[in-house]
């Protein structure tokens, strides 16, 4: 479902997840005629999510293994 069809409140909630950013990047490429420079900020945010979640998972695993 396109992000544009969401209400403003749901759009804000959607951008709190990596899926919302991916959906908006895909929409920019297919519907709005974007290119790599258009979706580069989206990719950066998704990379940030990946780094943060990887760090959180590493910390939790280390904590579970050592206790």
Word description of this protein:
The chain is mostly helical and 67 residues long. The protein has one domain. The chain is built from three helices and no strands. The longest helix is centred in the C-terminal third of the chain and has 31 residues, at 36-66. The chain is elongated. The N and C termini lie far apart (44 Å).
Number of helices: 3
End-to-end Cα distance, whole Å, is: 44 Å
Fraction in helix: over 70%
Question: What would you call the structural class?
Answer: mainly alpha
**Main sheet record:** none
- What string gives the helices and strands in order? HHH
General form: elongated
**How confident is the prediction overall: mean pLDDT?**
94
What is the number of independent domains? 1
Radius of gyration: 16 Å
Strand content: under 5%
Number of strands: 0
| Poorly predicted residue ranges | none
Keywords: Membrane, Transmembrane, Transmembrane helix
Organism: Lentzea sokolovensis
Transmembrane segments: 43-61
Protein name: ABC transporter permease
Q: Main attributes?
A:
single chain; 67 residues; mainly alpha; 3 helices; elongated
Summarize the structure in short.
This protein has 67 residues and is mostly helical.
Secondary structure: elements and pairs:
Elements: H1 8-14, H2 18-30, H3 36-66
Helix pairs in contact: 2-3
